[in-house]
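Section: Multi-chain targets

For targets with more than one molecule, the full set of components is provided together so that the structure can be written out for the assembly as a whole rather than chain by chain. Components appear in the order listed by the source. The example entry contains three components.
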Amino acid sequence: MGRTPCCEKNGLKKGPWTPEEDQKLVDYIHKHGYGNWRTLPKNAGLQRCGKSCRLRWTNYLRPDIKRGRFSLEEEETIIHLHSILGNKWSAIASRLPGRTDNEIKNYWNTHIRKRLLRMGIDPVTHSPRLDLLDLSSLFGSSISHINNNMQHHLNPELLKLATSLFSHTNSLDNSHNQIISSDVSLSFPQANFLESNNNVDSAYPSNLMNTSDYWHADNNNIGIASTSSPCYVTDQLPTSYYYNNNSNNYYCHHASLVDPPMSETSTFHSNNSSSNTYVNGNNSSTEDERESYVSTNNSVLRFEIPDMLDVNAFV
DNA sequence: AAGCCCCGCAACCGCACGTAG
DNA sequence: GCTACGTGCGGTTGCGGGGCT
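Its structure, encoded as tokens over all components, is:
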């Protein structure tokens, strides 16, 4: 539309803000409010364009900005809302008091998005992406076995999901794999659920499922189950997980990813503790090693958004 | 200690949208 | 209806710090 730029390029400063500039901006806004952003820098004695001032204020200087690491609840909220809203950062930010759209966007791009990709989940659709995965390397001989002998038993969607669930593993101990053909239950060793980790103690928390636990699947569902209480999760992969402050554990409504707190051993549970669903815990400190999946029982397959997270107004 | 590399984040850029004249 | 303006939004960039060799 041929509109003029918000500021003349000549003579206006760009780049990082100095403390003096910050102080000028804060002082001015405290005295006069921000009013017109275009005229503000001139009135405040700043050699900046209005846009730059607005960004600096809204993303950094605003008194209600919450600083520091994202809490787990905030992270869960971001993932939930992103699965519904997509890259509507401002809409997501409006549900996270004290967080800016820019901050959330950065956090998504630098942490959450990468993690999803590594786990074979499309960060845009929040669905498994088979094209990101290498089935043969993930399942080794098991895949061959399935392909050769069991394919007629397996729902392709099931295989797809299973693949994504194991996408974060780097190695596979084939000796433990077995196929239970009666109801197409797949059994995998504990190691399959864990990051490659030389620290065996940390990689095998005491409350992991034991070797009698198995992957349970039918034509429509797949999940981690114990022999005594099978459980299922949907073969679709909406994200739904939360963190319980009291127990310091992650919970999940679906097969999905979770991101345990750093530098602590964390254990994942289903929403129903009686179902014995697992999943991962370690005391690693890297992002990679914090990845894991969880499955749960079929009692919670519906994605529920609390009132405060009602996003209907935004879609 | 020095150099290199990677990553996170603040800031910029350009476009879209609403509104006033 | 057209244009200019103000602002919001999402994508992208590049600096700086920290880790690694």
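Residues 133-294 of chain A form one domain.
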